[in-house]
Amino acid sequence: MEKAIRNKATVRDVKVQCRLQCANQTVFGEPLVGLELPFPGAGSVEDLSFFQKILKRADCVNSCETEKLGSLTLHQVSEEVELEFGKRTPYNYLQVAYFKIDKLDKAVAAAHTFFQANPDHMEMKQNLEYYRMMARVEEENFKDLEAKPHMAEFLMGKSFYSDDSFGLAAQHFEKALGEYFTANKECRALCEGGYRFDGYTYMEYSADLFQAMTDHYMQLLNCKQHCPVELASAAGREGPFEDFLPSHFNYLQFSYYNSEKYEQAIECAKTFLLFHPENEMMTQNLNYYSAVLGKDKAAAISARQVTAEFLSDLVLDSD
Fold first, then answer.
1. What percentage of residues in the chain have a pLDDT greater than 70?
2. Helix, strand, coil percent content, the chain, rounded in steps of 5
3. The pTM is what?
4. Which of 156, 171, 197, 310 is least crowded, fewest Cβ atoms below 10 Å from its Cβ?
5. How far apart are CA 115 and CA 88, in angstroms?
């Protein structure tokens, strides 16, 4: 079961690495030498160039994954198995196995990991209560082995923020942002998988070339648009955190203000306003920080570029 979890993580990581690596090697939109019109549809030669890049990227991804993972049949699993991993079922088996061989620290971690995604599982709740009464079990054993790095840092930041430890809060929110944008790239890369035949079987699906391309690409865009929702979701919660990414900058601007770091406060306030340009409270905060620092210095500070690019991608996906 441990090997299954490790292999699942390895397959995911390899797919992300291969798709990002191959995306960097095959860039769309570049014209062929001597041609002025770079976009597919401008002519037969340009169409050939477009499809040539698609084939080149497909070959790159397939070669990369085969080299690192072997044949597709070695790591392809059914939807049922994927669902079980999504429900963290392997950790349910693991906690029993660890308990039987007297590895209590690992049993507790596995039980806690499963329970985070299944908070209504009464048997596991009772197991955790039993573990807490055992003398050899430490509080540090109760850890989520599948915790998302960006979410863990965000929650740590909120904890320090609530304790008015604004310096530490800012550190964790900054780490959370770095992890968030990495996770977003990975999520978008994982969307570039095979076509899902929702509502019908493979044999029932009938479409010509361009309809098939359109169907698959629309599925890809829908998946990418869902990434912010997935990243704002934590195991065991009924729904995602509201306004998740902008809230980082809200927490940060106030944390930096309380640390008298007005340049950073202004940067974060301006970044927050990229999401909510009509927010009066943040506009007032920005005006105050600008007055303290000096309007000329404040005017030279821009919103964070990585966030502007993130929003640009969202707009392109929705259009």
1. 89
2. 70, 0, 30
3. 0.87
4. 197
5. 9
Helices 262-275 and 305-318 meet at what angle, rounded to 10?
0
**pLDDT for position 136:** 93
Reported confidence tier of residue 32, pLDDT bands at 50, 70, 90: very low
**Sign, CA torsion 236/237/240/246:** negative
Query: From CA 194, how far away is CA 191, in angstroms rounded?
Result: 9
As to burial, measured by CB atoms within 10 angstroms (0-12 exposed, 13-18 middle, 19+ buried), residue 289 is buried
Cα–Cα distance, 9 to 21 (Å, whole number): 18
For residue 217, pLDDT beyond 50: yes
Cα–Cα dist 239/221, whole Å? 22
Place of tokens 């790591």: 75
Distance between CA atoms of 194 and 9, rounded to whole angstroms? 19
Cα(55)–Cα(63) distance, rounded to whole angstroms?
A: 12
Alpha helices per DSSP H over the chain: 2-25, 44-69, 79-86, 89-100, 104-117, 122-132, 149-162, 166-190, 209-231, 244-258, 262-275, 280-293, 295-299, 305-318
Contact assessment for residue 303 and residue 273, using Cβ atoms and an 8 Å cutoff: yes
CA atoms within 13 A on the CB side of 68: 17
Q: Taking the chain, what is the end-to-end CA distance rounded to the nearest angstrom? A: 43
Query: Which tokens hold the place of 286?
Result: 């920005």
Closest of 252, 259, 237 to residue 307, by C-alpha: 252
Residues 6+ apart with CB under 8 A from 188: 224, 227, 313
